[in-house]
Write a structure and sequence with these properties.
Structural class: alpha+beta
Number of domains: 2
CATH superfamily of the largest domain: Cysteine proteinases
Strand content: 15-25%
Number of strands: 8
Helix content: 25-40%
CATH topology of the largest domain: Cathepsin B, Chain A
Distance between the termini: 36 Å
Length: 200
């Protein structure tokens, strides 16, 4: 919830339905044996949020795509989080595995609002990790907010575009943005990913 409004996964483009469809599929799967004919309601989303499922974003992803969940605290190895013995990204900087990271919780609403104002990040919120990039001598982490919201760039944000091999992505649109690696390490709690996916 944001105030009294529901926050669903979405894209700013009305032609792009995949974020909402994936989210709805997850809710239907977690709803269990309820009739598949019954429409998913806001109450179904809220029931999952309240349930003691100990569900992390990687476990949610695993329930949809299979594979094995892996991850670590972001602060455990600082800047080495993307350059471990087995890198999480390709040589062009694109993540080689479905990956997500989530920010640390804040103690109260005022702290959450201050965090948002300064960083453009939501506390206790999961983001898709798309890859890494370099601008000048600075390293950045490319993220996507599942709400599809692109905020104005703040201090520590990369400028357009993200060039990853033949791929060129405009930042600060459709929820995609890039922040300094140091900023990522400071504000994110955990990073998780899916391994051993079976190729179709």
């Amino acid at each position: 919830m944001a105030g009294k409004l529901f926050r669903y996964a979405r894209s700013v483009s009305r032609d792009e339905a995949w974020p909402a469809l994936i989210e709805k599929t997850y809710v239907m799967k977690k709803r269990g044996n309820a009739s598949l004919q019954a429409e998913v309601s806001p109450a179904d989303y809220q029931a999952i949020a309240r349930a003691p499922l100990n569900t992390t974003p990687p476990l949610a992803c695993q329930s949809l795509v299979g594979g094995k969940v892996a991850g670590r605290p972001v602060g455990s190895d600082g800047g080495k989080v993307f350059s471990d013995r087995e890198p999480l990204h390709t040589s062009s900087g694109i993540m080689s595995k479905p990956a997500m990271a989530w920010t640390k919780p804040k103690v109260n609403r005022a702290a959450e609002e201050d965090f948002w104002t300064v960083t453009g990040l939501w506390s206790n919120h999961a983001y898709a990790v798309l890859g890494v990039m370099k601008q000048g001598d600075r390293d950045y982490v490319v993220l996507r907010n599942p709400w599809g919201i692109a905020t104005r760039p703040r201090g520590g944000y990369a400028e357009d575009p993200w060039n990853a091999g033949e791929l060129s992505v405009t930042l600060n649109q459709k929820g995609v943005f890039a922040i300094l690696l140091e900023m990522f390490v400071e504000h994110f709690d955990q990073i998780g990913w899916i391994e051993n996916l079976v190729n179709a």
